[in-house]
UniProtKB/TrEMBL annotation:
Source lineage: Bacteria, Bacillati, Bacillota, Bacilli, Bacillales
SUPFAM superfamilies with a match to the protein in the record: Metallo-hydrolase/oxidoreductase (SSF56281)
Annotated protein name in UniProt: Ribonuclease Z
One Pfam assignment: Anti-Pycsar_Apyc1
The keyword Lipoprotein belongs to this UniProt entry's keyword annotation: no
Provenance organism: Paenibacillus psychroresistens
Keyword DNA-binding tagged: no
Domain Metallo-beta-lactamase: from-to ranges: 19-220
Molecular functions (GO terms): 3'-tRNA processing endoribonuclease activity; metal ion binding
Keyword tags: Endonuclease, Hydrolase, Nuclease, Zinc
Length: 254
């Protein structure tokens, strides 16, 4: 079986060229959206993908380029398609995504719509627990070093496909993924300038062993990406809308 990835966008938080870094992952017929930023609804439309074709959304953290499209998605699913979509949310973000991010726009006390569960079939994801989200499709989260005291998570799908979300450079995690978990693909955010702020820098990623670089796809990059195409070692710039396919063995938690 293969897992395919199609980036709805590959840009940084303020990109005007590449959309938000959000990904559509397909495995065994299951369509998982990794993050839903404010450009995601238009990006899905660009790809002629309807909201109801998404089987589940996973949220890495609460920055707008990762959740800003959830209000439209929720309204579309409720009022246009009359379906309750699945939302996979790290346990520590469950209350905050409603109280501090979605409630203002989605709450409607006059229609007794007062909670996240009124819009979504909510599945909390405990950190570090390999969770079967669909038959043979597992997801495991890792707390990332992004904004202090503001939880952000990376995901590992079926033990082999890693998606960083937003994180600073974390050599210990990357070594664990590559040498212990036998990761075969790493999609990683990349800040093209120094010094490191809240993302891994290209210079730090270039210090990785070449055999690791070969499986790294760079995303969440600046609009000046084209100035770096020959400066990324053995790594690859993930491109918006391009389809990537990775052979994966079936996994179950049992
Ligand atoms: N400590 C911080 C927090 C935020 N920023 C800026 O905000 C942007 C957040 O969006 P991301 O998707 O990139 O996480 C970030 O890009 C910074 O511009 C910061 O610099 N430092
Ligand atoms: Zn981001
Ligand atoms: Zn962020």
């Amino acid at each position: 079986m293969s897992l395919t990835v199609q980036m709805l966008g590959t840009g940084w938080a303020f990109s005007k060229k590449y959309n938000n870094t959000n990904a559509l992952v397909q495995y065994k017929g299951y369509n998982l959206l990794l993050d839903c930023g404010f450009t995601a609804p238009a990006a899905l439309h660009e790809l002629n993908i309807k909201p109801y074709q998404i089987d589940g959304v996973f949220i890495t953290h609460l920055h707008a380029d990762h959740i800003g499209g959830l209000e439209e998605y929720a309204f579309q699913m409720m009022y246009t398609y009359k379906k309750k979509p699945v939302l996979f949310i790290p346990t520590t973000l469950r209350q905050a995504i409603w109280d501090y991010s979605l409630r203002g726009g989605l709450e409607n006390p006059g229609e007794n719509i007062t909670s996240l569960e009124d819009y979504f079939d909510v599945h909390e994801i405990p950190v570090g627990v390999r969770t079967e989200i669909a038959s043979g499709f597992t997801l495991e989260t890792f707390l990332t070093k992004h904004i202090p005291d503001k939880p952000s998570y990376a995901v590992l799908l079926n033990d082999h496909f890693f998606y960083s979300g937003d994180t600073c450079f974390d050599l210990k995690l990357l070594n664990t993924l590559f040498y212990q978990r036998n990761c075969t693909a790493i999609f990683h955010d990349c800040q093209l300038f120094n010094p490191e702020t809240v993302h891994a820098t290209l210079d730090d990623l270039l210090t990785l062993p070449l055999e690791m670089q070969k499986i790294i796809y760079l995303m969440h990059y600046g609009d000046n990406m084209e100035n770096f195409t020959d400066k990324i070692g053995q790594m690859t710039f993930a491109k918006k809308h391009q389809l990537y396919s990775f052979p994966l063995e079936e996994k179950s938690i049992y």
